[in-house]
């Protein structure tokens, strides 16, 4: 906890995933919501097969999902969501002629049934 | 919003993901539930490593998850689920000798903490 | 139902996904919670692009999500979570010098809007 998933469409060729994940993780650390930086587990996945809507324009997206153990307030979650979106907005530039949508979802993981162990 | 994820096992070699995603998106547009076709963000992911149950028969699956901003009725979500399943049923044919399971999950994304911006 | 997703970071090179998925599925069958072994749909995904926290140590993770139709008690879900974590703990050995985190999330899928069909 937390788990972060970033998906990006393959037409966003300039996206530097290493840099982006590190910046997202730094934003989460800076929120003060998490006890240990070590707990933040983030991954990026390039989406090769996608379709945005039904139109013919070239389109793409970056979609982040942040999964937290349940119990945080809506206000805290909204702030986390906005801080991650700010990182996504800052990392562009996006390719010419591609309509890009950036989104961040925050969802709860049930704290009572989440299991974890750290090794090493 | 909405986000659609389609996973399919690699043994379903005849699946045309471009055509399938477009048909799923058209079904969502036809539902009248979404303000703009542009908002529908769909992706397909081929699952190379999988196991269905514990038996030895050859098996596969297509699993769709549709994520919506919270607030729609169970009835509306059920109709969306069934309309997407109907698309999956219609796109077969499936390989001989493979037991295939098709499923659609509809889940809510918390509207209050979802952030989004469109660029270009 | 159920759906199981296993993600593992690419630096955990010794992980045998076929064996791991089969053992996880056997643990689910042994729980007695599921009517048919055939219903258990599990997949493994190797995460090539990831970042754990902000530190410089080599780190990795195995993250399992189990999605169940809604209605089971917290106690049952906790037992399922712990039995899957026990499998993950048992399958190591993990690479020297990598800090590995193992986690299991159990989440509900809305039973009223889940659609499914089996073919063949």
From TrEMBL, chains A, B, C:
Keywords: Isomerase. CDD domains: CHMI. Coiled coil: none annotated. GO terms for molecular function: 5-carboxymethyl-2-hydroxymuconate delta-isomerase activity. It holds the Pfam family CHMI. SUPFAM superfamilies: Tautomerase/MIF. PANTHER family: 4-HYDROXYPHENYLACETATE CATABOLISM PROTEIN (PTHR37950). This is 5-carboxymethyl-2-hydroxymuconate Delta-isomerase. It comes from Pseudomonas kairouanensis. The lineage of its organism: Bacteria, Pseudomonadati, Pseudomonadota, Gammaproteobacteria, Pseudomonadales.
